[in-house]
Q: What sequence folds into this?
């Protein structure tokens, strides 16, 4: 069987084929906006390796050798601050709140019964030992006590008491500020190094800020057989004793500012002067006259 097609049928089939190709191409490109990236596929890399690589952990500072129980935590600004080991972050925040709420009313919750200073001075510094008796009246709250002593350098410390205590910080105005937790009597023993001013040579001068106390005294041993002392009138009672080439200066009722001077005095010779002489006399008698000759050595 032979099928014959006319020229009109051929053109009709060609137009149907072309129309189908156009419909298919339109379906493939209908969801694509000119100039936009393809909807599927792997997006191009736009970040660098430094941005995708996690940063290594920050290196924590090494705690000082004399404070082995220190660790570091970040505050709200991201800064590392030292705190005691074993303290959780919530506890650290409570500690900061306690510092912010510490008020001057704490003065009613502590008192200093006695302050005793004793030491020696032989050069540009005086080595003093301060013994301080402190009574804490608050049981459940941390009490901050300003001990002043700002001119001195703290070399060592010992303390006894019913609770816990320690040096908080050194303040330019209030000096050494200690914290106490637990009511009762505490005894502090502080080893201090106090500068001795020698600008008004040969005078020596000590200045030291002190806390308010019921009883206060100073005993200073000076390597000089005799000294002349000078204190502000009405500030303290003074007593000086000398023994074995050394002088001991004692002050009572120091107040809140220790300020006194002394000057070594050269040792005087206590020997009484003596005069020795020898006289030789010659007597010559000639008739009615007498001649005397005397030689004295």
A:
């Amino acid at each position: 069987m032979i099928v014959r097609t006319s020229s009109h049928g051929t053109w009709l089939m060609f137009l149907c084929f072309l129309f189908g190709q156009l419909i298919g191409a339109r379906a493939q490109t209908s969801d694509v906006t000119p100039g936009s990236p393809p909807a599927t596929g792997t997006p191009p890399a736009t970040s660098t390796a430094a941005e995708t690589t996690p940063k290594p952990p920050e290196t924590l500072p090494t705690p000082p050798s004399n404070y082995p129980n220190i660790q570091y935590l970040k505050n709200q600004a991201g800064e590392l601050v030292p705190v005691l080991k074993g303290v959780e972050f919530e506890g650290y925040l409570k500690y900061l709140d306690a510092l912010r709420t510490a008020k001057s009313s704490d003065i009613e919750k502590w008192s200093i019964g006695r302050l005793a200073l004793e030491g020696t001075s032989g050069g540009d510094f005086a080595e003093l030992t301060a013994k301080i008796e402190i009574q804490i009246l608050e049981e459940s709250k941390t009490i901050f006590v300003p001990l002043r002593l700002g001119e001195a350098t703290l070399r060592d410390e010992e303390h006894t008491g019913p609770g816990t205590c320690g040096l908080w910080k050194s303040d330019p105005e209030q000096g050494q500020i200690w914290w106490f937790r637990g009511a009762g009597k505490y005894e502090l023993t502080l080893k201090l190094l106090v500068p001795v001013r020698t600008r008004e040579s040969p005078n020596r001068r000590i200045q030291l800020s002190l806390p308010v106390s019921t009883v206060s005294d100073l005993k200073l041993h000076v390597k000089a057989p005799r000294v002349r002392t000078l204190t502000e009138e009405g500030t303290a009672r003074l007593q000086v004793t000398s023994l074995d080439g050394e002088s001991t200066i004692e002050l009572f009722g120091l107040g809140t500012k220790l300020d006194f001077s002394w000057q070594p005095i050269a040792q005087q010779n206590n020997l009484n002067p003596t005069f020795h002489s020898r006289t030789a006399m010659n007597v010559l008698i000639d008739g009615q006259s007498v001649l005397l000759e005397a030689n004295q050595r």
Summary: The helical segments are 7-29, 49-52, 89-100. The two ends are 185 Å apart (CA to CA). The mean pLDDT is 75.
